[in-house]
# Entry
Amino acid sequence: MTAFSTSELRVLRRLDSPRRVQDFLETLRYSKDRGNDMLRSPRRVLRERSAHCIEGALLAAAAFRTNGARPLLLDLRSDDDDLDHVVALFRRHGCWGAVSKTNHAVLRYREPVYRTVRELALSYFHEYFLDDGRKTMKDFSDPYDVVRRHGTSWMTSEDDLWDIAEALDASRHRTILGVRQRRELRPADPVEIRAGKLVVFT
# Structure
């Protein structure tokens, strides 16, 4: 059992579907200025009411686990010039979907319509690009059960959770493209680049 307070558990138990988890994440301010120096637990996110992508994924995983689902993460890894993105996975009727915390118009929630995790991961591929249009997503992790790997103390920790981020990054990842495919990629269009700059919080 985790050490969530009664009020924290009340919030998490209300998040009893992926849709409700996603809706809740949308109420949290995106902590873009803290993404490089903080990785807060679900308890701290609930208290401070803000999150960046992996913090949102961990909160979603905690909500899933509280309500009887597996707490699975998916790491979408990019070239060195770009940032990785982490989402929380779920399954409905044999198909995969994802809950995502992002400040941008892209890299968002995915409906559970994907037959495999690879299909779901590839749904993010065309939306993963830099300001010059270069597409950067290179691989994705196997589903990562954060409770099986790390127990439950991370959910209420007051310490930063960089050990989880490092272990996720070191876990098995699957390559998306071969060298020839990568060389032949077409850059994103200018309109896509402009759309990618649309943010929720400025």
Remarks:
- Residues 53-66 form the longest helix (14 residues).
- Residues 6-196 form one domain.
